[in-house]
């Protein structure tokens, strides 16, 4: 069935494409990608403990070691074996006096955190900073 005008039945069907729905769909997809892009870049989901003194940390520019809730070890957002941590640090940092940042989920066992700190120190790095999030009044 062709669409036509009732006043002039001899006209041909409408051959133009209505692009309004297409623009609506593209804008919705653009918004979805804009919202999800920052989430994809952060990588590891860690619920940090809260403290009153906090300094911002950029995992891409600093040596950041992360312990996830499942106690999986990450170095610069890449999974790393506990026994390979010292070698990864030496390859990436070398003998630089750069500080190493350790962030761990608040539910990680203290024993795991101490073992990672010990492994970092055995590897020859003594400047270890613990990463937290700002304290919020409840």
Topology:
Layout: H1 20-42, E1 50-51, E2 63-67, E3 73-75, E4 78-79, H2 85-92, E5 100-104, H3 110-122, E6 128-130, E7 133-134
Spatial strand arrangement across the major sheet: 4-3-2-5-6
Tell me the overall shape: elongated
The CATH class assignment of the domain at 50-134 is Alpha Beta
Please report the number of helical segments. Answer: 3
**Helix content estimate:** 25-40%
Number of strands: 7
| Element-level helix/strand string | HEEEEHEHEE
Broad structural category: alpha/beta
Average pLDDT: 80
Distance between the termini: 65 Å
Strand content: 15-25%
CA gyration radius, whole angstroms: 27 Å
The oligomeric state is: single chain
CATH architecture of the domain at 50-134: 2-Layer Sandwich
Description:
The chain is 32% helix and 16% strand. It is an alpha/beta fold and 138 residues long. It has a domain at 50-134: Nucleotidyltransferase, domain 5. The strands form 2 sheets. Strands 4-3-2-5-6 form a 5-stranded mixed beta sheet, covered by helices on one side. A two-stranded parallel ribbon has the order 1-7. The longest helix is centred in the first third of the chain and has 23 residues, at 20-42. The chain is elongated and about 90 Å long. The termini are far apart. The model has no long low-confidence stretch (mean pLDDT 80).
């Amino acid at each position: 069935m062709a669409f036509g005008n009732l006043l002039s039945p001899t006209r041909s069907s409408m051959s133009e494409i209505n692009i309004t729905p297409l623009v609506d769909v593209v804008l919705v997809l653009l918004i979805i990608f804009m919202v999800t892009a920052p989430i994809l870049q952060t990588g590891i989901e860690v619920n940090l403990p809260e403290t009153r003194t906090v300094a911002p940390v950029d995992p891409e520019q600093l040596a950041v070691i992360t312990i996830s809730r499942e106690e999986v070890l990450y170095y610069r957002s890449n999974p790393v074996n506990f026994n390979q941590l010292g070698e990864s640090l030496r390859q990436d940092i070398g003998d630089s006096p750069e500080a190493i940042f350790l962030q761990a989920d608040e539910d990680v066992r203290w024993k795991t955190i101490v073992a990672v700190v010990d492994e970092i120190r055995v590897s020859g790095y003594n400047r270890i900073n613990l990463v937290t999030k700002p304290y919020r009044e409840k």
